Amino acid sequence: MSKPTVADLKTTLETWAPPQAKLDYDNIGYQVGTPSKEVSKALICLDVTPEVIQEAVEIGAECIVSHHPILFKKPSEILTTTLQGELIHGLIEAGCSLITAHTNLDAAPGGVSFKLAEKLGLREVEFLRPFEAAGQTVGFGAVGLLSTPHTTADFSKHVAVSLGQPTLRTAGGYATHQEGFRIDRVAVCGGSGSSLLDEISWDGIDAFVTADVTYHRFFVEHPSLFLVDVGHYESEMMIIEAMREHLTTAHPSAQFFSTKIQTNPVTYHSFSDA
Questions:
Q1: Is residue 156 part of a domain?
Q2: What is the pTM of this model?
Q3: pLDDT value at position 53?
Q4: According to a count of CB atoms within 10 Å of the terminal CB, is the N or C end of the chain lower?
């Protein structure tokens, strides 16, 4: 059985997550490397770091598949004195290609937000803001039902336990502070999803789980919406295994590995005497 090429892996990802679904600012697909190169092993990650490249070298991977690009805009220079330059040089020196599925995978059916919803145990999940791209329904965010209604405290704990994230930032409209308020229908958006607060009607949705919420957005305008910021990495990390499974099914002649490197650049500190 012949091995897939880097181009084949890109095609497989973009059949699942069409490029037409990406946001305008994004840069997806090829980042570094040789499209025609055969791939016997590939490493899947959320972020490319020097440690991830070293991991790829150690397992003999010819390709890295990442969720986040390292190239958003055309660089004017590529120097090893910058992180971006170090990564590009490292990939070239390792003979390792890099392809990326970013906001197109955010918008894909079964993509980032659906995997976050699955992690939270939501059922009857559908797109939060659906649209059409490449002849199929895609969308940003997902919405579904909890198995049982939760108080805000119970829901916060459920999210923390489900994602292994003990530190959450939460806020809510005035109705969420009333004694009888319960959370039943939950919206999620992996990554930076707070722009959706202005783009859809929140009637009938009790909570929104996302990341990268800025201070003023925590003054929640909808009276019955509970807002939870879980952290960017924490809201997207489950897509690594989803990409690995998808590529393994499509290309059984190659081996696909999820990175063992925790690439979250954020460190959370807790001081009991603060």
A1: yes
A2: 0.95
A3: 98
A4: C
